[in-house]
Design goal:
alpha+beta, five-stranded antiparallel β-sheet, three-stranded antiparallel β-sheet
Protein backbone atom coordinates (compact mmCIF):
# COMPACT_ATOMS: atom_id res chain seq x y z
CA UNK A 1 0.00 0.00 0.00
CA UNK A 2 2.77 2.45 0.91
CA UNK A 3 4.64 1.75 -2.33
CA UNK A 4 1.51 2.33 -4.42
CA UNK A 5 0.75 5.53 -2.55
CA UNK A 6 4.31 6.78 -3.08
CA UNK A 7 4.17 6.03 -6.80
CA UNK A 8 0.88 7.86 -7.17
CA UNK A 9 2.16 10.90 -5.31
CA UNK A 10 5.31 11.05 -7.44
CA UNK A 11 3.28 10.79 -10.65
CA UNK A 12 0.83 13.43 -9.44
CA UNK A 13 3.69 15.78 -8.53
CA UNK A 14 5.32 15.55 -11.95
CA UNK A 15 1.97 15.58 -13.69
CA UNK A 16 1.21 19.00 -12.27
CA UNK A 17 4.63 20.50 -12.92
CA UNK A 18 5.89 18.87 -16.10
CA UNK A 19 2.70 17.93 -17.93
CA UNK A 20 3.30 14.23 -17.46
CA UNK A 21 0.46 12.10 -18.79
CA UNK A 22 -0.45 8.82 -17.10
CA UNK A 23 -2.41 6.01 -18.74
CA UNK A 24 -3.42 3.34 -16.25
CA UNK A 25 -4.44 -0.18 -17.24
CA UNK A 26 -2.81 0.20 -20.65
CA UNK A 27 -1.18 -3.02 -21.80
CA UNK A 28 1.72 -2.93 -24.25
CA UNK A 29 1.66 -5.97 -26.53
CA UNK A 30 4.38 -5.11 -29.04
CA UNK A 31 7.54 -2.99 -29.02
CA UNK A 32 9.44 -2.04 -32.17
CA UNK A 33 12.48 0.20 -32.33
CA UNK A 34 14.33 1.69 -35.30
CA UNK A 35 17.11 4.22 -35.62
CA UNK A 36 14.90 7.20 -34.72
CA UNK A 37 11.84 6.05 -32.81
CA UNK A 38 10.34 3.44 -30.55
CA UNK A 39 6.79 2.34 -31.28
CA UNK A 40 4.66 0.63 -28.65
CA UNK A 41 1.39 -0.98 -29.68
CA UNK A 42 -1.32 -1.19 -27.02
CA UNK A 43 -3.84 -4.00 -26.63
CA UNK A 44 -6.63 -1.61 -27.66
CA UNK A 45 -4.90 -0.66 -30.90
CA UNK A 46 -3.39 2.84 -30.50
CA UNK A 47 0.35 3.14 -31.03
CA UNK A 48 2.61 5.24 -28.82
CA UNK A 49 5.74 6.76 -30.38
CA UNK A 50 8.73 8.08 -28.45
CA UNK A 51 12.36 8.96 -29.01
CA UNK A 52 13.30 6.89 -25.96
CA UNK A 53 11.49 4.44 -23.69
CA UNK A 54 12.25 3.45 -20.10
CA UNK A 55 10.90 0.07 -19.02
CA UNK A 56 10.53 -0.23 -15.25
CA UNK A 57 7.78 -2.84 -15.09
CA UNK A 58 9.53 -5.59 -13.17
CA UNK A 59 8.38 -9.09 -14.04
CA UNK A 60 5.96 -7.78 -16.66
CA UNK A 61 8.97 -7.05 -18.88
CA UNK A 62 9.84 -10.75 -19.18
CA UNK A 63 7.86 -11.41 -22.43
CA UNK A 64 9.99 -8.81 -24.22
CA UNK A 65 13.33 -10.24 -23.03
CA UNK A 66 15.29 -13.33 -23.99
CA UNK A 67 14.82 -16.46 -21.90
CA UNK A 68 17.11 -17.13 -18.98
CA UNK A 69 17.55 -13.58 -17.71
CA UNK A 70 15.23 -13.99 -14.73
CA UNK A 71 13.95 -16.90 -12.64
CA UNK A 72 10.45 -16.47 -11.27
CA UNK A 73 9.37 -17.93 -7.93
CA UNK A 74 6.05 -18.14 -6.11
CA UNK A 75 6.34 -16.74 -2.57
CA UNK A 76 3.92 -16.83 0.37
CA UNK A 77 3.25 -14.53 3.33
CA UNK A 78 1.08 -14.74 6.45
CA UNK A 79 0.12 -12.06 8.95
CA UNK A 80 -0.92 -12.81 12.52
CA UNK A 81 -3.65 -11.23 14.56
CA UNK A 82 -2.45 -8.32 16.68
CA UNK A 83 -0.25 -9.66 19.44
CA UNK A 84 -0.61 -8.66 23.11
CA UNK A 85 1.55 -5.68 23.98
CA UNK A 86 4.92 -6.84 25.20
CA UNK A 87 8.25 -8.15 23.92
CA UNK A 88 8.25 -10.44 20.92
CA UNK A 89 11.96 -10.77 20.23
CA UNK A 90 14.94 -8.48 20.73
CA UNK A 91 14.32 -4.98 19.35
CA UNK A 92 11.56 -6.38 17.09
CA UNK A 93 14.20 -6.48 14.38
CA UNK A 94 13.79 -8.00 10.93
CA UNK A 95 14.86 -11.64 10.99
CA UNK A 96 15.96 -13.33 7.80
CA UNK A 97 16.90 -17.00 7.84
CA UNK A 98 19.39 -17.66 5.06
CA UNK A 99 18.75 -21.41 4.89
CA UNK A 100 17.10 -22.92 1.82
CA UNK A 101 14.17 -22.75 1.82
CA UNK A 102 14.49 -19.41 3.60
CA UNK A 103 11.96 -17.59 5.75
CA UNK A 104 11.75 -14.14 7.32
CA UNK A 105 9.90 -12.39 10.12
CA UNK A 106 9.07 -8.80 10.94
CA UNK A 107 6.51 -6.89 12.98
CA UNK A 108 4.05 -4.13 12.13
CA UNK A 109 2.99 -0.95 13.89
CA UNK A 110 -0.21 -2.61 15.10
CA UNK A 111 1.80 -5.42 16.72
CA UNK A 112 1.27 -8.11 14.12
CA UNK A 113 3.87 -10.60 12.98
CA UNK A 114 4.53 -11.03 9.28
CA UNK A 115 6.22 -14.19 8.09
CA UNK A 116 7.14 -15.11 4.53
CA UNK A 117 8.84 -17.87 2.61
CA UNK A 118 7.97 -21.33 1.26
CA UNK A 119 9.10 -20.24 -2.20
CA UNK A 120 8.91 -22.59 -5.16
CA UNK A 121 9.35 -22.18 -8.93
CA UNK A 122 6.55 -20.10 -10.41
CA UNK A 123 4.19 -21.87 -12.80
CA UNK A 124 1.12 -19.66 -13.17
CA UNK A 125 -1.02 -17.49 -10.85
CA UNK A 126 -3.80 -20.07 -10.44
CA UNK A 127 -1.49 -22.88 -9.36
CA UNK A 128 0.39 -20.48 -7.09
CA UNK A 129 -2.76 -19.28 -5.34
CA UNK A 130 -4.26 -22.78 -5.07
CA UNK A 131 -1.42 -23.72 -2.73
CA UNK A 132 -1.92 -20.74 -0.42
CA UNK A 133 -3.79 -22.54 2.38
CA UNK A 134 -1.30 -25.40 2.58
CA UNK A 135 1.67 -23.04 2.42
CA UNK A 136 0.20 -20.87 5.19
CA UNK A 137 -0.07 -23.92 7.46
CA UNK A 138 3.56 -24.83 6.77
CA UNK A 139 4.69 -21.31 7.64
CA UNK A 140 2.77 -21.35 10.94
CA UNK A 141 4.27 -24.73 11.82
CA UNK A 142 7.74 -23.43 11.10
CA UNK A 143 7.11 -20.29 13.16
CA UNK A 144 6.01 -22.31 16.20
CA UNK A 145 9.10 -24.47 15.91
CA UNK A 146 11.35 -21.38 15.95
CA UNK A 147 9.33 -19.39 18.54
CA UNK A 148 7.61 -22.00 20.76
CA UNK A 149 6.69 -19.39 23.40
CA UNK A 150 4.80 -17.13 20.99
CA UNK A 151 1.34 -17.72 19.57
CA UNK A 152 0.53 -17.20 15.92
CA UNK A 153 -3.05 -17.07 14.69
CA UNK A 154 -3.16 -16.27 10.99
CA UNK A 155 -5.52 -13.45 10.02
CA UNK A 156 -4.27 -12.74 6.51
CA UNK A 157 -2.39 -14.80 3.93
CA UNK A 158 -1.37 -14.01 0.38
CA UNK A 159 0.93 -15.09 -2.41
CA UNK A 160 3.06 -13.22 -4.89
CA UNK A 161 5.67 -13.66 -7.57
CA UNK A 162 9.35 -12.99 -6.96
CA UNK A 163 12.09 -12.83 -9.56
CA UNK A 164 15.84 -13.00 -9.40
CA UNK A 165 18.73 -12.93 -11.82
CA UNK A 166 21.47 -15.55 -11.82
CA UNK A 167 23.86 -13.31 -9.88
CA UNK A 168 21.30 -11.39 -7.81
CA UNK A 169 22.00 -8.07 -9.55
CA UNK A 170 19.49 -6.00 -11.50
CA UNK A 171 19.46 -5.31 -15.22
CA UNK A 172 19.94 -1.62 -15.93
CA UNK A 173 20.51 0.01 -19.30
CA UNK A 174 19.86 -0.80 -22.94
CA UNK A 175 20.47 -3.93 -24.97
CA UNK A 176 22.72 -3.57 -28.01
CA UNK A 177 19.86 -4.49 -30.33
CA UNK A 178 17.61 -1.73 -28.92
CA UNK A 179 19.72 1.28 -27.90
CA UNK A 180 16.68 3.55 -27.46
CA UNK A 181 14.98 1.29 -24.90
CA UNK A 182 16.36 1.54 -21.36
CA UNK A 183 15.51 -1.00 -18.68
CA UNK A 184 15.40 -0.59 -14.91
CA UNK A 185 14.69 -4.10 -13.63
CA UNK A 186 15.51 -4.52 -9.94
CA UNK A 187 15.47 -8.29 -9.72
CA UNK A 188 16.90 -9.89 -6.60
CA UNK A 189 14.80 -8.60 -3.71
CA UNK A 190 16.53 -5.24 -3.27
CA UNK A 191 14.32 -3.21 -5.57
CA UNK A 192 14.27 -0.02 -3.50
CA UNK A 193 18.06 0.20 -3.47
CA UNK A 194 18.36 -0.82 -7.10
CA UNK A 195 15.74 1.73 -8.15
CA UNK A 196 17.93 4.56 -6.87
CA UNK A 197 20.91 3.21 -8.81
CA UNK A 198 18.78 2.73 -11.92
CA UNK A 199 17.35 6.25 -11.73
CA UNK A 200 20.85 7.71 -11.79
CA UNK A 201 22.21 5.45 -14.52
CA UNK A 202 19.20 5.56 -16.83
CA UNK A 203 18.83 9.31 -16.34
CA UNK A 204 22.37 9.83 -17.55
CA UNK A 205 22.02 7.39 -20.45
CA UNK A 206 18.85 9.11 -21.67
CA UNK A 207 20.79 12.37 -21.84
CA UNK A 208 23.53 10.75 -23.91
CA UNK A 209 26.01 10.59 -21.03
CA UNK A 210 27.97 7.63 -19.69
CA UNK A 211 27.85 6.24 -16.18
CA UNK A 212 30.85 4.36 -14.76
CA UNK A 213 28.64 1.87 -12.91
CA UNK A 214 26.50 0.92 -15.91
CA UNK A 215 28.89 -1.87 -16.87
CA UNK A 216 28.05 -3.72 -13.63
CA UNK A 217 24.39 -4.12 -14.58
CA UNK A 218 24.53 -4.60 -18.35
CA UNK A 219 22.47 -7.38 -19.94
CA UNK A 220 25.43 -9.33 -21.31
CA UNK A 221 27.53 -9.29 -18.12
CA UNK A 222 27.33 -13.07 -17.61
CA UNK A 223 28.30 -14.03 -21.14
Amino acid sequence: VCAVRLAREVLAYHGKRRKLRVFQNTKIVEVKADADRVRLRTSDGPIIEARQVVVATGYEAAPFLEDGLVRLHASYVIASRSQPEGPLWKDRCLIWETARPYCYFRTTDDHRILMGGEDEPFADPRRRDAKLAAKAKKLVKRFRRIFPRLTFETEFAWAGTFGESADGLPYIGARKSEPRIFYALGYGGNGITFSQIAARIVGRLCRGKKDPDAVLFRFDRNR
